[in-house]
Model the fold of this input.
Amino acid sequence: MALKPGVIARILAIAQNKSNWGSKFFFATLLAVLIFFWWLLIYSGGVSGKHG
Amino acid sequence: MNPLRYRPVRSMWRPLLPALMVAVIGLSGGAFPSVVAAASHVVEQQGASVRGDEVKKESVAESLPAPKPKRSDYPSIGVSSRAVVWVVAQMHLFFGALVLAVPIFVLVIELIGFKTNDDRFDDMAHEFMKVSLTAYAITALFGGTLALSLFLFYPHFMTYMMRAFGSQVLVYAVLFFLESILLYIYYYGWNALRYGNRKWVHLTLGLLLNAVGTTLLVVANSWSTFMMAPSGIDPATGAVIGNIWEIMKGPLWNPLNLHRFLANIAFGGAVVGAYAAFKFLAAKTPAEKAHYDWMGYTSNFIAILAFLPLPFAGYWLMAEIYAYSQQMGILAMGGILAWLFVIQAVLICTILLAGNYYLWTGMARTEGGERYRWQIKYIAVVLVFGFLVWVTPHNVIYTGGEIAKLGGGNHPILGPLGIMPAKNIAVFLMLIFTFLSFQLYRRADKVITVAWQDWGNALMIVIYIVASANVIFAGVYYGYFTNTVYKVGSSVIQVVSTVVVIVAGVVIDTLMFKGAKTLPVYWGKVSDRSQYALFALPVAFTWLMALMGYIRSSVRTHWHVYTVMKDNSPENFIPTLQTVGNMVTGITLLFLIFVLFIFWIANLSGTKQIPPATDGGLTAAENTA
Done:
C-alpha cells in the first residue's frame, strides 16, 4: 500500500508531541551500529586472521 | 577382497563410533544427558569437518590458480598505465577520505549544538556538509574512472580480484547506493528535521550515514590489504580456497582500517579548515569574520585531535607489516623507500608547526592568552629541534673525498640521530608539546577558581616532566645501549608516556575548569597570517597521504598480489625517487585545484545575481532605496 503524501510528516508530527523517544531511538541505533562493527571487524564469521 | 567396497563402510563407522561408545556408557551407567549431548555435538562437528574437508579438497582441485599474465597480456594505449591508475586511484582516495570523514565530525558537532542549544554549531555542521556534498559526486566519478582504468589496463589482475572477492563487490555497490540516499536525506532534510524528536531522527540518519560510510571504507581497505598480505588463498598457487571472511581478514586489515579512519578525519578537518580560512579572508563583515574564524578553529581542533593518535596507528600498521614480511618492512623503512620517510618527517613537522602556530596566534582572541605567551618560545624550541632530528638522514650518498673527511659512511655526531630511536624521541616530544599548546589554548579564556589549582598545576607539570624524561630515557638507553628487541619494545613505553600526558591533561583540566570564570573570546580578532597556517595544513596532509599511500602500495614491488600474482607489465619496478616526487607532487596539486573548485561551487550556491535594471538604468533594489 502506497503512503499518501504527508503521511510520514504527520506521523512525525504526532510523535513530536509524545515523550522523548528520539534520544532512545538514536542511542538504540548507536548500540546496533557498535555491535555491527564488532561483528564486522572483530568477529567476522568466527574467522581468525590467517595468511598464505 | 576389493578394498574399495569396504571404504565407505569404514568412513561411516568413524564418526558413529564415539557416539556408540557414549551411548553404551550412558545406558549402562544411567542418565548422562549432558555427556550424550556433548558427544552428539562432537559427532556432528566431526561429520561436518569430514564433509568440510571433502568440499575443501574438491574446491582446491577445482579452484583456478592465480593468473600468470605475460607482458603482451597488458593492453597499452600509448600512455603509462601505472601513471593513469596512480593518479586516478589517489584522487579517488583523497575525495573518498574527505566525504567519509566530514560526516563523522559533522555528526558530533550537530550533537553538541543540539545538546547545548547553540545554533552556531548546527549552522557550522550544515556548512561543512555543503563542502562534503559537492565533493561526493567527484568521488564517485573518480571511483568509476578507476574501476574502468583497472579493467582496461590490468584485466587479468581484476579477474583474479573479482574471483577472490566475488559477490562482496556487489555488497559494496549496494552500500554506495545507501550512502548516497542517506547523504542526500541528511543534507537536504537538515532544516525539516531541526527540533525535538525530529532532530534525533536527523542525528540517527547521520549515524547511519557514517556507519555505511565506514563500512564502505573497510570493505575497500580489504582489497588493498589483500594485495599486500593475501589470505584465504592457497599460497602455492594463489587459488582461492577461503570464504569471504578469510579473504578479508588478512593480518593488515584492521591496522589499515584504524589508520585510515583516523587519517581521514584529520585530512577532512584540514580541508574544511582551508575552506573556513578562504571564507575568513574573503569576509566583508565582522560577523562573517567571527563565524569563519570559529569554523577554522574548530576544523584545526578536529584535524590535530585526530592527528595526535595517528602515529600510534601507524606504528601498529608497520609492526604488522614487519610481522607479515620482514622483507616488506625493511624495503619500506630501510631500503630505497626509506628516503621518502625523510620527506614524511618534513611534512609531519610542517603539520605540527602549522597547527601549533595557529593555536599560538589564536590566543590573541582573549585577553587571558597573555598569561601563557611566555611558554610559546620553549614549545617552539622543542618543535624545531624535534624537526631537525627527525629529518636527519642516517646516511647520505657521499663522494670519496667526503667519506675520507668524515672518517666513515656516517657523520660522527649526526649519524646517531639518523636512526629510529632518535626520531622516536623527537616525535613523541613533539606530540607532548603540541598537546601542551592545546592545553594552554584551552586555558587561555578561563580563570580557574578551584581551591586545589596549585596542586593540580604542580601535578600536571610533574606529569609533563616525568613523561618527557621517560621518552628520552627509553629512547637513549634502549635505543643505543641494548639490543634490537628492546629497541623496538621501548617505543611502547614512549607511546604510553605520551598517552598518559594527553589523558591526564584532559582529566585534570576538566576537573579544574569546574566553576572557572570564562573570559570573553573575540572571534574574528585574529591575524590574517594565522589563516595561512590553515592553508598549510591540507597541503601538507594531501602531500603526506599521496606519499605514504605510494609507499604502502609500492612495498609489493613486482607483485600485483604479494607472493601470489606477479606483475609482468612493463612498469613492474619501483620508480626512481625523482619520478615518485614528481608524481606525488603533481597529484597533490591536482587535488588542490579540485578543492578550490569545490570551494568556489560552495560559494556560488550562496551568491545571488542583482536583478537587471527595469527602468532608467536603475535596478529594482536601487528603485526601492
